[in-house]
Structure formats: structure tokens, C-alpha cells
Design a protein that fits this description.
Order of helices and strands: HEHEHEHEEEEHEHEHEEEHHEEEEEEHE
CATH topology of the largest domain: Alkaline Phosphatase, subunit A
CATH class of the largest domain: Alpha Beta
CATH architecture of the largest domain: 3-Layer(aba) Sandwich
Largest sheet: 11 strands, mixed
Helix content: 25-40%
Length: about 475
């Protein structure tokens, strides 16, 4: 009897111990459950609207990005705020029109300004919620130390400070431009001078993969602004000659491989379900470079214009459980909307300074197809207001723009000259039915034109318009070099 009591007591103790162990493990699992969202933005340079398989590319294979679209949402009406490098990037990172911040065109090694430290960047937004942050690729918001990414919210930086053609090998070197050597940076340290760039996409990818592995147990924001496919085109041997589109297609295939390596790493550490991945381009293709440029088909024109081919860019977003799977959205929105959307997702406060974008998290999650900020402005050059958009209609305002006028560039990687057209009268296009901008319907919609002209005047009062000598009251200064 005594032995039986002892036996039962031992069994009971073992059961209690097992239950305690199980309970402790369960609590431990729950405590480690990831209730945050990592964010990765892959932002390539000069890729055309059609240059992905999921956007209709007939001769470029992009299985990894296509898989993101299949597992997420493809946004077919996403726009960059301006069709040029620096301006488009500052709008993505600040939620502001670039001209509001005094950031025009493409900053080069001869410029002495950059992003103002008073502007809140996406990286600083994520840092406010204790995220690890990194940027690997092309920065292009000022090249001096004051404007280095490490001074604007990023923990890590590897890449080039401006476009990859701003170097001594530029075909116009010594005539139009006088570029110094192209530097490669790791943080504040200049670690190399680039005389060729065939390994840069691979190096950026390796940095991104290592960053994810290092920060797998904490929330992170990873910004990957690839310098390619901006000319000059460079690709590693592993993708050379692989595409039916030639060298340009090879470059896109390598970028697609890079995306695949990032997703593979997320899968390795079981991070896919709590990571938002966004893929897009800073503007449309640089058409004067012929076969070394991308395709914006079926859209009109390309980089350097505010026609649809210059500002409407491919956009794919994926995050299982947050962003709908296999969906296609044609809702109009812009890079300026990304920061306030991320702020809402993070439950983080917006900047103290006014910004231009709006929260579109319901659009990303599929809860709504509405955009509360359905009015947008398109500036170019030094604060030229060239177009305004509202409720499906785009009013093109009088301005001069560049065009190839039906001509095609060459196969040698060198640009041909643009022509310039002067648009003397406004034109109106209904993009919902005519995204190719073929039918000027200005004579059929007097009330729409009057509404859009009033909207243009409001933008001029706020941000000015050099085309009509309007100065604007809402402009802010870029960052300047410290004395």
C-alpha cells in the first residue's frame, strides 16, 4: 500500500512537472510571437512600367517579383511624385512633394545641398518604434557627411551617393559635365572607387541578406534602392546574356534574383508573414538610351516628363495576412502616401511639419479602394507645375517637354538627342479610360477643366509655380552645408 502511495505521488509530481514545463514553453512561444511588421522597400532606378513579367514584359523573366505579385497585390496606378531621381526619392522618404522641400532634379557631386535634417524620414519614423534600419544602394539626397543616411535615421549604409553615371566614364564627360571618380561608401567611410559596376547588385544583395539575418529577432526597416537599371548598365557574369531583351533584360533578371534572395532569407528565418515587401521604380525609362532603356508601354513618353510613362511605375506589395493575395488594384496613389501609411501601421505620430501624403493602409489591406487624397500635383524642373490630377482626370498645363517624337535610340548604350515640344494650351485626359493619353477631351468637359484649374491655383498658392511666377507660401529650404 505504501509503495502504491509513493508510486502515485511520484507520477503526480512528474505530471505537474510536465505541465509546468509545457506551460512555460507555451508562455515563452507567446512572448516571442512577432506582433510587428518588418518593412522592406526595393526601389529600382529608371525601370519602365512594362518591365516585369507581371506587368506584361514579353521578353524579361522576373519569376520572383511575379511571385510577390501572386502572393500580394499588384498596384497598376502607382505614381512617383516627379519623374527624376532625387526628387522621387525624397518624396518616398518624407511623404512630401519634393519641390516643397527645395529638392529638384538630380543632385550631383557639384551640388552643395541635400535633405534637410528637420524633415522626418521613413527611417526616423521606424527608429521611433525601435526598428533597426538600413539602406543599401543609391542614396542621392546629398553626398556630403551632413546628408549621409546615418544622419537621417539609418543605422547602416552601403552604396553610392548619387547616380551611377555621374563618373569620369560618362559619354559627356568634359563637355557638358565634369564628374569626379564614383565613390562607394560603407557608412561615412569611402571604401572604394568604382571603375566598373558589375558586382554592385550582388554586393547590395549580400548586405541586405546579412542585415535580415542579423536583425531576425527584432523589427527592421530595410531600404534597397538599386542603382540599376539606370545607365550605364552593368550585370554580373551569372546573368550576362540570359535575357531575350539583351543587356537591359539581363540587369532586370539580376534584380529579380536579388528580390528572390531577400525572400529566401525571410523564409529561412520564418519572417515572411510579418514582413511587408514593396517593389517599385523611381520613375519611368530613360528612352533616349534605346535598347539600354526600359519600356513604359502602353504609356506615353518616359523619364523626364509628366506624361504617364514618366510617373506611373510598376508597384507590387506583399505581406501574407495583411495585403490581399492575387489582387490587382487600379486606385491612383503616389510615393508621398507611403510615409503616412507606414506611420498608421506603426501607430507612430506624423511629423510636426506639414506633409502632403495621406494614410492609405485601408487600400493596402484591401478594406477600401478609395483614396482620400484623390488630388495630386506634378512638378518638374525648378518648380514648374506641369499637371494636376483629380478623380480620374489629368489636366496637362502649358509647358515644354522633351520627346523622341516616335524615334528610337540605338543599341550602343549612348543617348540620342531629344526634341522639345511646347504645349501652349492645356490638355485634358480621362485616365480611367485612356491611360495612354491619346484622346484630349478638354472640349467635352468644361466643368472638369474649371475644377482642375482651381486646384492648380491652390497648388500655386501653396508651393508656387515658376512657369507663372508664383512663389508659394508653403515652401521649405533644403539642407545646407554646415559652416
Amino acid at each position: 500500500m505504501l509503495l502504491r502511495i509513493i508510486y502515485l505521488s511520484v507520477i503526480s509530481l512528474l505530471i505537474i512537472a510536465c505541465q509546468a514545463t509545457f506551460t512555460d514553453k507555451k508562455v515563452n512561444v507567446d512572448s516571442n510571437k512577432k506582433n510587428y511588421k518588418n518593412v522592406i522597400i526595393v526601389y529600382v532606378d529608371d525601370q519602365g512600367y512594362q518591365d516585369l513579367g507581371c506587368f506584361g514584359a514579353p521578353d524579361i523573366l522576373t519569376p520572383n517579383i511575379d511571385r510577390l505579385a501572386k502572393n500580394g497585390t499588384r498596384f497598376t496606378n502607382f505614381h512617383t511624385a516627379q519623374p527624376v531621381c532625387t526628387a522621387s526619392r525624397v518624396s518616398l522618404l518624407t511623404g512630401c512633394y519634393p519641390n516643397r522641400l527645395g529638392m529638384h532634379g538630380a543632385i550631383g557631386p557639384g551640388h552643395e545641398h541635400g535633405i534637410n535634417p528637420d524633415e522626418l524620414t521613413l527611417a526616423e519614423l521606424f527608429k521611433s518604434k525601435d526598428y533597426a534600419t538600413a539602406v543599401f544602394g543609391k542614396w542621392h539626397l546629398g553626398w556630403q557627411d551632413e546628408f549621409n543616411p546615418l544622419n537621417h535615421g539609418f543605422d547602416e549604409y552601403f552604396g553610392i551617393p548619387y547616380s551611377n553615371d555621374m563618373w569620369p566614364h560618362h559619354p559627356w564627360q568634359g563637355t557638358i559635365f565634369d564628374f569626379p571618380d564614383l565613390p562607394l561608401y560603407d557608412g561615412f567611410e569611402r571604401i572604394d572607387t568604382l571603375n566598373e559596376q558589375s558586382q554592385l547588385t550582388t554586393q547590395i544583395t549580400e548586405k541586405a541578406v546579412d542585415f535580415i539575418a542579423t536583425n531576425k529577432d527584432q523589427p527592421f526597416f530595410l531600404y534597397v534602392p538599386h542603382p540599376q537599371p539606370h545607365v550605364p548598365l552593368y550585370v554580373s557574369d551569372k546573368f550576362k546574356g540570359k535575357s531575350e531583351r539583351g543587356l537591359y533584360g539581363d540587369v532586370i533578371m539580376e534584380i529579380d534574383w536579388s528580390v528572390g534572395e531577400i525572400v529566401k532569407t525571410l523564409n529561412k528565418y520564418d519572417l515572411v508573414e510579418n514582413t511587408v515587401i514593396m517593389y517599385s521604380s523611381d520613375n519611368g525609362p530613360w528612352l533616349s538610351y534605346g535598347t539600354h532603356s526600359g519600356s513604359a508601354l502602353p504609356l506615353k513618353e518616359g523619364k523626364g516628363t509628366n506624361w504617364e510613362g514618366g510617373t506611373r511605375v510598376p508597384c507590387v506589395m506583399s505581406c501574407p495576412g495583411l495585403i490581399p493575395t492575387g489582387k490587382v488594384s487600379d486606385t491612383y496613389f503616389m510615393t508621398i502616401d507611403i510615409l503616412p501609411t507606414m506611420a498608421t501601421m506603426l501607430e507612430a505620430p506624423l511629423p510636426d511639419r506639414p506633409i502632403d501624403g495621406n494614410n492609405l493602409l485601408p487600400l493596402l489591406t484591401g478594406e477600401s479602394e478609395e483614396n482620400p487624397n484623390d488630388t495630386y500635383a506634378f512638378y518638374y524642373h525648378n518648380n514648374h507645375l506641369q499637371a494636376v490630377y483629380d478623380d480620374g482626370y489629368k489636366l496637362i498645363l502649358p509647358h515644354s517637354y522633351r520627346t523622341l517624337n516616335g524615334r528610337h535610340g540605338t543599341d550602343d548604350g549612348l543617348p540620342i538627342d531629344y526634341e522639345h515640344k511646347d504645349l501652349s494650351e492645356p490638355e485634358l485626359y480621362h485616365l480611367d479610360s485612356d491611360k495612354e493619353e491619346k484622346q484630349n477631351v478638354i472640349d467635352k468637359h468644361t466643368a472638369v477643366v474649371e475644377r482642375l484649374l482651381k486646384i492648380a491655383e491652390e497648388y500655386r498658392k501653396d508651393m508656387g509655380d515658376a512657369l507663372v511666377d508664383a512663389e508659394g507660401t508653403g515652401l521649405r529650404s533644403p539642407g545646407k552645408l554646415l559652416e
